[in-house]
């Protein structure tokens, strides 16, 4: 049975990261964007990260430009935007596709493990969130409209 530790991803700075490095932690994997109506959720994601990280929780942000061209920048622009506007300190990865034939293998796995509304796999928009337990398995999937604070209790239960 696969788990999140079976995957690698490029960090925003371009180096390859084994997601096994996050083994034993509770994770929230989110496809993010800088020019989205949900972009202010960066603030809530960062608040969760700062509050719960000491207990073994991490947010993993994956910029995605597949929805309305809402993440047009390069890695440097994305980093600058996230730090200057939302003081993001949680790990950010290189831009990925989450749907279609070029979808990152991590997102293919996440979507297969937790279907969306009416059993659909496709991610509908930026800021879709996948909650991963300490065992590396997908526990839940949350719509872009679900604010980070609304997930805190679910995260707490896993910690």
List the topology elements:
Elements: E1 8-10, E2 16-18, E3 26-32, H1 41-52, E4 57-63, H2 75-86, H3 105-113, E5 129-132, E6 138-142, H4 148-158
Parallel strand pairs: 3-4
Antiparallel strand pairs: 1-2, 3-5, 5-6
Would you write up a description of this structure?
- It contains four helices and six strands, in the order βββαβααββα.
- The protein has 159 residues and is an alpha+beta fold.
- It has a four-stranded mixed sheet with strand order 4-3-5-6, covered by helices on one side. The protein has a two-stranded antiparallel sheet with strand order 1-2.
- β5 (129-132) and β6 form a beta hairpin.
- α1 packs parallel to α4.
- It is globular, with a radius of gyration of 14 Å.
- The chain starts with 7 loop residues before the first strand and ends with a helix.
- The model has no long low-confidence stretch (mean pLDDT 94).
Keywords:
4-stranded mixed β-sheet, 28% helix, two-stranded antiparallel sheet, alpha+beta, 4 helices
What does this entry show, briefly?
By secondary structure, this protein is an alpha+beta fold.
Helix coverage percent? 25-40%
Low-confidence stretches: none
Structural class: alpha+beta
Strand order of the largest sheet: 4-3-5-6
Q: C-alpha Rg, in Å? A: 14 Å
Query: N-to-C terminal Cα separation, in Å?
Result: 22 Å
Determine the number of helices (DSSP H or I, runs of at least 4 residues). 4
* Fraction in beta strands: 15-25%
Largest sheet: 4 strands, mixed
Number of DSSP strand runs:
6
SSE order in H/E notation? EEEHEHHEEH
Q: What is the average of the pLDDT values?
A: 94
User: How would you sum up the global shape?
Assistant: globular
């Amino acid at each position: 049975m696969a788990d999140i530790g079976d995957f690698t991803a490029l960090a925003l700075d371009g180096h390859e990261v084994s997601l096994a490095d996050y083994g034993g932690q509770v994770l929230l994997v989110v496809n993010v964007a800088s020019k989205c109506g949900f972009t202010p959720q960066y603030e809530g994601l960062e608040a969760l990260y700062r509050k719960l990280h000491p207990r073994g929780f991490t947010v993993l942000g994956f910029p995605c430009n597949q929805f309305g061209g809402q993440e047009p920048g390069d890695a440097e622009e994305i980093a600058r935007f996230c730090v200057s506007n939302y003081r993001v300190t949680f790990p950010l990865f290189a831009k990925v596709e989450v749907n279609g034939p070029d979808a990152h293998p991590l997102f293919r796995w996440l979507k297969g493990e937790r279907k969306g509304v009416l059993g659909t796999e496709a991610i509908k928009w930026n800021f879709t969130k996948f909650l991963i337990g300490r065992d590396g398995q997908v526990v839940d999937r949350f719509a872009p409209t679900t604010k980070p604070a609304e997930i805190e209790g679910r995260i707490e239960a896993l910690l």
